[in-house]
Amino acid sequence: MIVFPNAKINIGLNVIAKRADGYHNLETIFYPVKIYDALEAITAPVMHFASSGINIPGGDEKNLCIKAYELVSRDHPLPRVNIHLHKHIPIGAGLGGGSADAAFFLKQLNTLSDLNLSDDDLENYARQLGADCAFFIRNKPVYATQKGDVFKEAELDLTKYYLVVAMPDVHVSTADAYSGVVAQDGTADLRDSIKLPVAEWKHEIKNDFERSVFKKFPVIEDLKNELYKAGALYASMSGSGAAVFGIFEVQPNLSHLEKSCRIFYKV
């Protein structure tokens, strides 16, 4: 059984307050994009995990797919599974690739084992694996609050635009990004902001991680500026970085960036 976990971008990311449990309350719009990993899972006599493509840091036992299997196995009998993950979504990018892999694997387990878990059930498992993991169960635009795992519908359709994601040769640690962010409340509701014309978003929608991340990695800020120079209506870092996306009316010419960045066109 092969599935293709996709990435996401954040349209705005407001860090509201530090929580007692060490996490932060935030608000953001999660929007799925067409950058994919490939994940195969088949029942087998022996449990095994393998990966190809982009090198995944840490041992296999730390992979979120393995953690997802262990989590579900506490409540349900599961067959042993051979897992092969081909990694294409950049790591340390703010695109949610690891979370997507785990969420899609939960859905695979649900099918392979005939567990008959609802989307709500799967989301509850996913929330235990990562703050944005639950988003990928339903995998449609949402307004996310609290740790990024409480959702309300977001009316957003960017299919008429040309969406580009650019990944510089930089890895941003989520922990480092959060250590430099300053929580602040009182921002406009993103559900209202996304109703504005996209060209006005740059005046109304921000990513609170950009201030501290740009100081440490000015190449990311330079990349955002390059997307605006190329004609982006709106450009932003996604999540805690390092990927930057641009929303264009037509296909831009970004050939001058392709030597220093991975460019994903029309995602």
TrEMBL record:
Catalytic activity field: 4-CDP-2-C-methyl-D-erythritol + ATP = 4-CDP-2-C-methyl-D-erythritol 2-phosphate + ADP + H(+)
Gene Ontology MF term list: 4-(cytidine 5'-diphospho)-2-C-methyl-D-erythritol kinase activity; ATP binding
Annotated active site: 8, 132
Protein origin, superkingdom: Bacteria
Domain called GHMP kinase C-terminal: residue spans: 207-249
Pfam families per record: GHMP_kinases_C (PF08544), GHMP_kinases_N (PF00288)
GHMP kinase N-terminal domain boundaries: 63-137
The keyword GTP-binding is assigned to this record: no
Keywords, in A-Z order: ATP-binding, Isoprene biosynthesis, Kinase, Nucleotide-binding, Transferase
EC number: 2.7.1.148
Positions with a binding annotation for ATP: 90-100
GO biological process terms, semicolon-separated: isopentenyl diphosphate biosynthetic process, methylerythritol 4-phosphate pathway; terpenoid biosynthetic process
Pathway assigned to this chain's UniProt record: Isoprenoid biosynthesis; isopentenyl diphosphate biosynthesis via DXP pathway; isopentenyl diphosphate from 1-deoxy-D-xylulose 5-phosphate: step 3/6
Reported function: Catalyzes the phosphorylation of the position 2 hydroxy group of 4-diphosphocytidyl-2C-methyl-D-erythritol.
HAMAP family for the chain: IspE (MF_00061)
Family assignment from sequence similarity: Belongs to the GHMP kinase family. IspE subfamily.
Name this polypeptide is given: 4-diphosphocytidyl-2-C-methyl-D-erythritol kinase
Gene source species: Mucilaginibacter ginkgonis
Encoding gene per record: ispE
